[in-house]
Write a structure and sequence with these properties.
Layout (H helix, E strand, L loop, with lengths): L11 H11 L33 H19 L9 E5 L16 H13 L5 E8 L10 H17 L3 E8 L18 H19 L4 E2 L4 H8 L5 H18 L5 E6 L5 H7 L6 E6 L9 H13 L2 E7 L17 H4 L8 H18 L3 E4 L20 H18 L4 H10 L3
Parallel strand pairs: 1-2, 1-8, 2-3, 3-4, 4-5, 5-6, 6-7, 7-8
Helix pairs in contact: 1-12, 2-11, 3-4, 5-7, 7-8, 11-13
């Protein structure tokens, strides 16, 4: 198939820079044609300031956690076949909200695809939350469907793969300009919507892999449904059966965060419709990046099923700060925007690659990929700004490097991992 042409240079690129800067989330995936373009030189990094005194204790704690986990996995053999590494296409995440309905939304995502292509990545992961492509959202759902249909056509035309993860949109407005409160709907309505959205994604988009849901704790927060392991498996399993019938060629998984009980994994492994388990890896505390992961990997191998990581990033919180809302903690995520964390982020990428190879994971996806291209210098006056404001500033810093395909040192580290180094 022919390649989707690159967007014209100016003035559209200037408008796209403004569009990217307006997004709280932005990132990208691979480019056009057969062989990926050579990795570009690193961008001039923002000044990597010394670690501010107020953050030094947390920095030291995270450094020690990385060192400990790295030693754990260094003692494990590398399993074959090697994993596929990918990055989240954050500009196409439904948390971008109404930005996806703008005329330049597709072109912006293609700029990001081209940037990650230069890193050597050949797969992207996209989050499509409930109920964005459903009539339940209202008339805008048709616009979101049109965006994803065009995007997936462009991805396939470039010879790339795209996996999809489903979930529910946040109801507090903190991560998106669109909110939808599933707590006002019944459990049966949630079940019906999940099935309808999964069927549309599987049949209309044909992703390389479909994760039906993850993080039952986050879904509990967004829906008000108490997802015990048995209830989680029942809800997700009924959708899996419908998708397996309608789109038998689409591989299916579901999963949990490594910080939750293994009971969720066991309940899902008992369902024959699933091809594997999907994990999210964030905090490194306790055994959540070591024994917990290895235990899931062993369970998957015993069941003859695959292991995938669809989200991972260095979670910048101390053990005392770990609460019940790990995957939706804006006050933690806002720490990511500062460049002084970059040495630890690089070490985390290297650790994650070792975890993926030692656990026998089929694929490993890195989430906060904006920071492969830019971050903010530390300024104490920014400390109390809301997450959305800080994220927009970070994207504004990254946008010129995304357009120029010039990653920073963190992006260069991911390029080395993708190449097998």
């Amino acid at each position: 198939m022919s390649c989707i042409p690159a967007p014209p240079a100016q003035p559209i690129r200037r408008r796209l820079l403004h569009a990217l800067a307006a997004l709280p989330l932005a990132s990208a995936l691979p480019g056009c044609g057969g062989s990926p373009p050579p990795a570009p030189p690193a961008a001039s990094p923002p000044a990597l300031s010394d670690v501010p005194a107020e953050w030094q204790p947390l920095y030291d704690t995270l450094s020690a956690q990385i060192t400990s986990a790295d030693a754990y996995w260094a003692a494990r053999p590398v399993r074959q076949p090697l994993p596929v590494f990918s990055a989240a296409l954050l500009s196409a995440n439904t948390n971008a909200g109404r930005r996806l309905l703008q005329p330049d939304a597709l072109a912006s995502s293609l700029l990001l695809l081209d940037a990650l292509a230069a890193l050597g990545l050949r797969e992207v992961n996209i989050d499509i939350q409930l109920p964005f492509v459903l009539p339940a959202l209202g008339p805008d759902h048709a616009g979101y469907r049109a965006f994803y249909l065009q995007l997936f056509a462009a991805i396939r035309a470039r010879g790339l793969r795209a996996s999809v993860e489903l979930g529910t949109t946040f109801n507090d407005g903190g991560f998106s300009d669109v909110s939808y409160d599933y707590r006002t709907r019944t459990e049966q309505q949630y079940r019906d919507d999940l099935r309808e959205q999964a069927l549309w994604v599987a049949t209309a988009l044909s992703p390389s892999h479909l994760t039906l849901s993850n993080e039952p704790d986050t879904q509990r927060q967004n829906t008000g449904i108490d997802f015990t392991p048995a209830r989680w498996a029942d809800v997700i399993g009924s959708t899996a059966r419908a998708v397996r019938t309608a789109a038998p060629g689409v591989p299916l998984s579901a999963g949990t965060g490594t910080w939750l009980t293994a009971g969720y994994v066991d309940a899902l492994l008992a369902l024959p419709e699933f091809d594997g388990i999907d994990l999210h890896l964030y905090p490194l505390a306790n055994d959540w990046a070591t024994g917990a992961v290895e235990s899931v990997a062993q369970r998957c191998r015993a069941a003859g099923k695959s292991l995938r990581f669809s989200e991972a990033w260095l979670y910048k919180a101390s053990p005392a700060e770990l609460g019940q809302n790990i995957a939706a903690a804006a006050d933690v995520f806002k720490r990511d925007v500062f460049a002084f964390w970059q040495p630890l982020d690089i070490r985390f990428l290297q650790l994650a690659a070792r975890i993926a190879r030692g656990s026998g994971a089929a694929s490993f996806n890195f989430f906060w990929t904006t920071y492969l291209y830019g971050a903010l210098g530390w300024d104490a006056s920014l400390r109390d700004l809301p997450y959305s404001d800080l994220a927009r500033r970070a994207v504004a810093a990254a946008a010129p490097n995304i357009v120029a395909r010039t990653p920073n040192a963190l992006g260069q580290a991911l390029a080395r991992i993708a190449s097998g180094l």
